[in-house]
Specification:
The protein has about 100 residues and is α+β, with helices and mostly antiparallel strands. It contains 1 helix and 2 strands; from the N terminus they run H-E-E.
Length: about 100
């Protein structure tokens, strides 16, 4: 009986080690894939901050006034919970904006 418990314990330990090894190898595989990715082209700009891409607008801006954003519309009986509520901002020409992962 004791030998059976020891055997089962060893099998369980072996399976756990195999699972960990598979996870580690997946990480290594992912790193090798990232290593072999082609590098993106650099962002080309002219002196003065004008974009050099053909067809890229020279000027333009975005205005958001009292914007409310939610993950879902909600049901008839449920009130909508907004992630952003009454947000206003102005993005001027030439500005770059990064959105945090809130959406």
């Amino acid at each position: 009986m004791v030998a059976m418990r020891v055997l089962l314990s060893n099998v369980q330990f072996g399976l756990m080690q195999a699972s960990l090894l598979e996870n580690y190898m997946t990480s290594v595989e992912r790193l090798l894939e990232y290593k072999n990715l082609e590098q993106e082209a650099p962002l080309e700009q002219k002196i003065g901050g004008e974009c050099s891409y053909q067809g890229w607008p020279k000027e333009g801006d975005l205005k958001f006034n009292n914007v409310c954003l939610s993950y879902n519309l909600g049901s008839k009986n449920e009130t909508v919970k907004y992630v952003l509520n009454n947000v206003s901002f102005h993005i001027y020409p030439g500005e770059r904006v990064r959105s945090p992962h809130i959406f």
